[in-house]
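Data card: per-record layout.
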Amino acid sequence: MPAADPHDPHHEESFEEFTARYEKEFEQVQDVFELQRNLNNAFAYDLVPSTSVITAALRAARRVNDYPTAVRIFEGIKAKVENKGQYDEYIEELRPIQEELGVVLKEELFPDTMAGERLGHARGA
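The structure for this 125-residue chain is written out next.
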């Protein structure tokens, strides 16, 4: 059976193809509009982007000097994961890049206001 053609409109993109595509997209970001457009597109899928995609997105946010979006990337992860354990795993794996870029999590910025938020349902559920 021949390999699937990624340009075929019926081709279903694998997680690996998705990851490679968005890593490349974020590596090419040159302005805030591109960064936010790519983030909206990546987080619109019914999956949580891999840590390599998140790392590329965080580096892109730094490149275009958009600190608020870097903080929001972590909020996007929190909204997409199924439970606190998954969120904690993402945070643990992303801790080196978070520290390298000096990104403070929203729950660290506003610890008293975050107590009532639930994972996956940060906006009124």
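Known properties of this structure: The mean pLDDT is 88. The radius of gyration is 16 Å.

See the next section for split statistics.
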